[in-house]
Amino acid sequence: MTFVKKPEIHHPLLTVNELGLKRRDYEGLVSTLCAGCGHDSVSAAIIQACSELSLPPHRFAKLSGIGCSSKTPSYFLSNSHGFNSVHGRMPSVATGANIANRDLIYIGVSGDGDSASIGLGQFAHAVRRKINMLYIVDNNGTYGLTKGQFSATNDYGSTSKRGVPNLYSPIDLVCMALQIGASFVARSFSGDKKQLVPLIKAALLHNGFSFIDIISPCVMFNNHDGSTKSYGHVRDHSAPIVDADFVAPHEEIEVDYAPGSTETIDMPDGSRLRLRKLEDSYNPKNRVDALAYVQRALDEGDVVTGLLYVEEDPADLHEVLETPEVPLSALTESDLCPGSETLDSINASFR
Amino acid sequence: MTKYNDFVIRFANVNGSGSASANSMFAKALFRMGVPVATRNIFPSNIQGLPTWFEVRATEKGYFGRREDVDIMVAMNAETYEEDVECLASGGYLVYDNTRPRPRTLERQDVVDVGIPITKLILPEFSDPKQRQLFKNIVYLGALSALLNIDFKVLTGMVSMQYKGKDALIQPNIHAMEIGRNYAFKYLDCPFEFQVRYSELAKDKILVDGNESAALGAIYGGATFCAWYPITPSTSVAEAFEKHAQKLRVDEDTGTKKYAVIQSEDELAALGMVIGAGWNGARAFTATSGPGISLMNEFLGLAYFAEIPAVLFDIQRVGPSTGMPTRTQQSDLLSVAFASHGDTRHPMLFPSTPKECFDFAADAFDIAERIQSPVVVMSDLELGMNELTSDQFEWEDIRKYDRGKVLTADDLDQVEDYGRYVDVDSDGIGYRTLPGTHPSKGSFFTRGTSRDEYAVYTEAPDAYSQNMDRLNRKWETIRALLPRSEVSSASYRAGIMYYGTTATPMSESLALLDDYGIELDTLRIRAFPIGHEVREFIAQHSIVFLVEQNRDAQMKTLIVNDLELNADQICSILYYGGMSISADFIVSEVLNYYEQNKVPRLKEVSS
């Protein structure tokens, strides 16, 4: 967690977005993560996505747990509130925050230790509650801050930096999210900005629980030959299946792909999400097929990436709870307090 | 000699046999006749088949505490028959089903046998086996109306009301009641020496349990979010909140709900959600019991250090571990007061009555937002789950919620140099901003790790120490803010202190002790941190009894530690068997002390 402020330097040619804001307005403090850390690329992708969507930076709420990944909310969106909570418990804090104020945009950043081990239960329950948020896992397969222990997302047989093999089956959060009912499930790679940025944009506009598992290599402890979460391994075994193009409102869709292999999804703000299927038979709107496909690929050692599943008409928790449009946090005495006259009849009911 | 409105009756049943509604109808009937009553449900951690007891104490003197013996026993459970007969006071009445013979060895010469052939009476009247079982309870209710002189119209009126809309059930219930009543009139000596008569004493009172009262307090106090995990004996706080919110908080025009309830996956998540909501400006709470508090420790530390309002209701039960989940204790004080690792302290409120559960629940939200920290309302099973005669709930319509120090966007425009943890007012409490408030000012990063006054991460020793010192200043602000103890002093040489449900048997204890020539000043603690009036009270008395329902004198530890006192005068009276503490116990402990320490039992006035 850094306290170093970035210098206020702007290239004169840098453009501003629809809000008149520069990329700089979406940045955060200087990262204190290791040079080459995948997580910094994820933060950069978040900054780019938020800026290109012209979303007001102060209307975000950033939440995290504990670990290297959970430090990253300091490194983007300085003008929004952040909450670095306790290990594995970001989902519950995000749930409460979201219930209190449905008007903000929620980004939760977690890691594989935070979400697949200590916080597996909270992760699962946030999925099933359909919290309207973007939930990112910076997945590096290792406990970086405590210097390189295995995490639960490590593949069976992959080795630690010292060559010790992992003897336990991996937990795949993408499969879990699909199985439990997330309405937006993607996997990407911190090194593939071209794929990642549109995914984050789509996820931010998706009105439901959006989960992106981002393989984000740890250069210090999990970037060696025996690792399946290294830059090299992921590049070699990454198998993009559905790329998402984000098409802003009023923007034309460029037709440069064979018809039949693309699908368009309308987003709430008028923008569109164009899914480019790299394999014709894949159906990103079918949860069961997606789960089967991802699971099969995992068994074969491939990392399927892209937008793996999306529900066109998702529900979020506030629909379930039937809460008002006005955030609960904005309600006042006149909305909340039934008053003394009603209390008289309540008293009478106890006689 | 007839005793009016002054007796304890205990019903011994098997749980799951439908006795609960009949028994509570009995209590309500007395209450509707204006008689102050306290009820106690003594139940196992089980749904069907184990012994359960329901006790009603009728008391014109307001002696609501548990008594060690009972005057009337309705022994409906063969399994516990022996102990049920045993706990009858001499001269008491034993009501039982004499359809089948009972062992002669269990007969007592000093009690009045009141056998009623309940099973036999029911058999020819009802054919449905389920009704035959359920109506046994109604038959003894009918018989008791004759034996105790309860206005039958009150009982039948209650049946009609309870089954409103299910009219087919009204007549059979009333018929079962009449069977018992007629049998009593015909074959038994009616009425008993213990009798019920109309009174005015409970006229302006209500009969309610503490958990429902707390839930209503949360609604009146503006809580919009309850996150909870089911655990006895706290479950009914959350359930009552939802039940009442469904009536009181649904928008008439849109049908939307101005509240949210989430049954979370565990207690950790419950408090995590409450903290997330508190951080974001909503009034949120959770209800739990000891095991839940254990799980919430890490989050409590975070909320203390990150300074986020949260309200918790700890309905205490017997620990450690699963302990006795359906029995009562006051044994979470230390674990709540210092919950979490590191230097932490959390304020607590100790309600003693349902009315105070309501008041403290509503107040807790104001306090939590004012002090930007968790506040724990410490109730227990005895208060939470048993219906007790209480003062009515009151609310001043001019009352405004105290949302504490929260800066709006306009406020922020006026502020040049905002720092979340800057102690602007020297009371240890900084100014909060809520997420989303201002485009360029007031945002900060909330964390459990060390930071400076501007919420910027630092591991600098001075910044850390200064922050912890400020939290100490805040503690003193909290001390001044919380409800003070209730003190009654006639300058006797000895005093007695108590809190929460140890207050329930206190008026009776004092009256009994007075008969022995012992007069005591009283102090009822209502909050932690401990008020300075406690220090004064202790200094003014050469003997100070402190009554608690735990083994380790937890409140004494808190007092001694929080006020940095010498504990020599404090003499603990500790009950921790899991039932609620009785006046009999308190009196015998005080008498023992006087005897062992050779203190003269005179009504002495201190010099």
**Main structural class of chain A:** alpha/beta
Rg of chain A from C-alpha positions?
21 Å
Residue fraction in strands of chain A: 15-25%
Question: What structural class do helix, strand and pairing data of chain B support?
Answer: alpha/beta
CATH homologous superfamily (4th level) name of the largest domain in chain B: Pyruvate-ferredoxin oxidoreductase, PFOR, domain III
Q: What oligomeric arrangement do these chains adopt? A: heterodimer
Termini of chain B, distance in Å? Answer: 43 Å
Whole-number total of structural domains of chain A = 1
Please tell me what the overall shape of chain A is: globular
Task: Give me the secondary-structure topology.
The complex is a heterodimer of chains A (351) and B (607).
Chain A: H1 38-52, E1 60-64, H2 68-71, E2 81-84, H3 90-100, E3 105-111, H4 112-118, H5 120-128, E4 133-139, E5 142-143, E6 149-150, H6 173-180, E7 184-189, H7 193-205, E8 209-215, H8 231-237, E9 238-247, E10 262-266, E11 272-277, H9 287-299, E12 303-310, H10 317-321, H11 333-336, H12 339-349
Parallel strand pairs in A: 1-2, 1-3, 3-4, 4-8, 7-8, 9-12
Antiparallel strand pairs in A: 5-6, 7-12, 9-11, 10-11
Helix pairs in contact in A: 1-7, 3-5, 4-5, 6-9
Chain B: E1 3-4, E2 6-14, H1 19-32, E3 37-42, E4 51-59, E5 70-75, H2 81-86, E6 88-97, E7 112-116, H3 118-122, H4 129-147, H5 152-162, H6 167-187, E8 194-195, E9 205-208, H7 210-220, E10 225-228, H8 235-248, E11 260-263, H9 267-279, E12 284-288, H10 290-306, E13 310-316, H11 333-337, E14 348-349, H12 354-371, E15 374-380, H13 381-385, E16 388-391, E17 406-407, H14 409-414, E18 432-433, E19 445-447, H15 461-481, E20 486-488, E21 494-499, H16 506-515, E22 521-525, E23 527-528, H17 532-540, E24 543-548, H18 554-562, E25 570-574, H19 583-596
Parallel strand pairs in B: 1-8, 2-5, 5-6, 6-7, 10-11, 10-12, 12-13, 13-15, 14-15, 17-18, 21-22, 21-24, 24-25
Antiparallel strand pairs in B: 2-4, 3-4, 9-16, 14-23, 20-22
Helix pairs in contact in B: 1-4, 1-5, 4-6, 7-8, 7-12, 9-10, 16-19
